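BUG-500 | component: ligand-complex export | severity: low

The export step for nicotinamide-adenine-dinucleotide jobs runs without errors, but we want the raw record kept on the ticket for reference. Input record follows.
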Amino acid sequence: MNKDQIFTQLGLTDKELTGGNLKVFSPIDGTHLADVKTDSTASAKSKIAAAAEAFKAWRAVPAPRRGELVRLYGNILRENKEALGALVTLECGKIRQEGLGEVQEMIDICDFAVGLSRQIYGLTIASERPQHKMREIWQPLGPVGIISAFNFPVAVWAWNAALALVCGDSTIWKPSEKTPLTALACQKLFEKACAEFGPDAPENLSQILIGEKEIGEVLVDSASVPLISATGSCAMGRAVGPRVAKRFGRSILELGGNNAIIVAPSADLDLALQGIAFGAVGTCGQRCTTTRRLFVHEDVYDKLVPALQKAYERLPIGDPLDPKTLVGPLIDEQAYLAMEDALNHAQMEGGKITGGGRVLSNEFPSGYYVRPAIVEMPKGSNVQEETFAPILYIFKYKDLSDAIVRQNAVPQGLSSAIFTSDIREAETFTSESGSDCGIANVNIGTSGAEIGGAFGGEKETGGGRESGSDSWKAYMRRMTSTVNYGSALPLAQGIRFNLE
Ligand code: NAD
């Protein structure tokens, strides 16, 4: 499929692709893809107001019927998986398999949300008063603001939107300014689902705001938007969290990671090697869950590290549209410069680097392809910052308790893993004194989560949870209701308040 065929299949026309001031380039080779129109503060405010109107109608539609819209959307995604996956590759540079995987993740969360639409239930709680009943009722919350990052340009929106829609909320999405086309394509497909669904879906149920952070700020500051789900860097979360809190809004913050894998002496090293490689170089090191740090036990260090270095030498780097490629480009020059900076810094600290550096610059002068790097770090060191590039820092350890302490001794707390065949080590790692992250895996790497679990991390990763489990509760308003069906009015805690 070439780019014009992709655009046509997804319903993107000149109206979306031309005449705007946001230039979109493909990270594959720098091709100019489109000039997208951006929102102004005024147009953003009017879209938010329209979403608030849509909410009033949508909240009254029964939840299982709302699920039907999401079911239709999931089917449309199935029909357009190839094209949307290809657009993800074209616009953010991840390899075809990962582009398709992202769309599959959207389909999976739609399925989950359809089931959820018949399982939104609260508790009935024993009342201390006679002839009283107490229950918990989950109500739609309001318009949900979704801010997303460039590296998961469609899945993160779907995680939020599919749940929000079945919960009775309208949505307003501010995608990354680096990936507006995938967002516009999702919107086109959503409009198709609404048309099939019929008049129960109000106009403006799903809105898109295109622009840089200033447009995101309009959403963040709007009192009409009770929930902001924001995915991006810790710096973004540090700005957004307090702003939302200032107006007593709620936020789900899904921020940066600094994820580690521990390889114990009893680990299946072949398994570990595969898990580490996928985690460290997948999406060219640009996943929030990318493996950035590796703690290897001294007994297996000299076996694992050279094997890993060898595997890195053979990595196929290149055009992400080529099915043989495993490592595509970085998103832009800035990302490449950040990688160079981090490697220089590591060298100054005494790190021993293999790999790294720009490649394929003759073939793709405007594409930033790099060789993933391994850095063997000196004793006692650690890495506190997330550099959004394929750099794997390796540390040697002796005692598991020390490795866990060092793994946890960073500001972020997203994903972690241990490779071990020792049940004591595995259970210690997932115990209260083990990993302090939102995700703690055993014999699986740090990246590639399924939608069924709640996704998110602790500390500077923001504490948010989205996707599976009971994450849906964040998109609803919890109401406690007590009904008195007797003829007296006993007060709670036995308080007497008798009027003469
Ligand atoms: P970024 O922080 O530069 O931008 C993310 C989004 O936030 C963009 O849409 C941007 O326009 C918007 N934004 C930035 N500042 C804002 C502000 N003050 N107010 C409102 N909106 C604002 O991140 P990026 O470079 O696109 O993505 C990479 C980062 O995202 C990495 O740190 C990565 O770990 C993180 N990430 C986290 C998760 C997660 O689930 N935890 C998932 C994907 C990416």
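Assignee comment: Attached the raw record above. The two ends are 83 Å apart (CA to CA).
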